[in-house]
From TrEMBL:
Official protein name in the record: Nucleoside-diphosphate sugar epimerase
Origin: domain of life: Bacteria
Database matches in Pfam families: NAD_binding_10
NAD(P)-binding domain: residues covered: 8-192
CDD domains: TMR_SDR_a
InterPro entries: NAD(P)-bd_dom, NAD(P)-bd_dom_sf, NmrA-type_oxidoreductase
Length: 293
């Protein structure tokens, strides 16, 4: 029996990965362990026979206990972005615990080009990748492209106003849905690629802001004009809207990264890993038409 562990199981990506393990990969619930800081949030899975364990990335010894008896471990990157350096420390705790617990294989959710990315949290991913490689454990690193889901944070407001203020410039981005990334993570856990692998998961096509706006406008049935702004103007607008400082800085850096061409990637890695075709951006927005409204 091979036991598979999903950290961050109560979050969006972790929860979707569990669903794909059960439904797409047809893994028996008894072979799956779901970890969360609050296991009580996982009753929908424990009711199916999935074991749940407490996972606190700040508690290294607790992680060793949680990972004991596990063959393959999915480390979903934590959401600790407000305090610089804390996220990487948490990830290192998990890697060290995996070694101590005798885990056979690590799967990690990273990002494209973390060595040159301008996104504020790129050093966390680069440092984690380096720590995984230094651990000596076999690994599969999944470099997830910028989620299509991220558009849903501001796009409803943009449609209401009829304007999308962006500092993407002429840059292109190939978005992939979070659910597709979860599907890939489940596939990597169920049947990892032979040897160590670093895969970049992207959507099927790369788009400019104007092209994305045209897709959104057609799906929502509302006009949407792209308004190019500078990084400084974008930061001012987000700050005025009440977003926390670290979120403003992160979102501005993401636009800068697109503008620099670091998210302009289209690969076949998702299809090679899952045997499926990634969802198109248009199909994603069609599935989330209600959210756009």
């Amino acid at each position: 029996m091979t036991r598979l562990f999903v950290t961050g199981a109560s979050g969006h990506l972790g929860r979707a990965t569990l669903r794909h393990l059960l439904e797409t990969q047809k893994i028996a619930p008894s072979d799956i362990v779901a970890g969360s800081r609050d296991p009580s949030k996982l009753t929908e899975f424990s009711d199916l026979g999935v074991e749940t364990r407490k996972v606190d990335f700040d508690d290294r010894e607790g992680l060793v206990t949680a990972f004991t008896g596990i063959d393959r471990l999915l480390i979903v990157s934590t959401d600790e972005l407000a305090t610089p350096g804390k996220r990487l420390k948490q990830h290192r705790n998990a890697i060290e615990a995996a070694v101590a617990a005798g885990v056979d294989h690590i799967v990690y959710t990273s990002m494209p080009n973390p060595d040159r990315s301008l996104v504020t949290f790129a050093p966390d991913h680069l440092g984690t990748e380096q720590a995984i490689k230094a651990s000596g454990l076999p690994y599969t690193i999944l470099r997830n492209a910028w989620y299509a889901d991220n558009h849903l944070m501001a796009m409803p407001h943009n449609l209401q106003a009829g304007s999308w203020y962006t500092a993407m410039g002429d840059g292109r981005v190939s978005n992939i849905s979070r659910d597709d990334c979860a599907r890939a993570a489940a596939a990597a856990l169920a049947k990892p690629p032979v040897g160590n692998a670093t895969l970049t998961l992207t959507g099927p096509e790369s788009f400019t802001a104007s092209e994305i706006a045209a897709i959104v406008s057609a799906v929502a049935g509302k006009p949407l004009q792209v308004v190019p702004v500078s990084d400084e103007q974008l930061a001012e607008g987000m700050t005025a809207a009440g977003l926390p400082g670290f979120v403003v800085t992160m979102l501005v850096s993401a636009d800068a990264n697109i503008r620099a061409g670091n998210f302009d990637l289209v690969t076949n890695d998702f299809q090679a890993l899952t045997g499926a075709t990634p969802q198109s951006l248009k199909a994603f927005f069609e599935d989330h038409r209600a959210a756009l409204a």
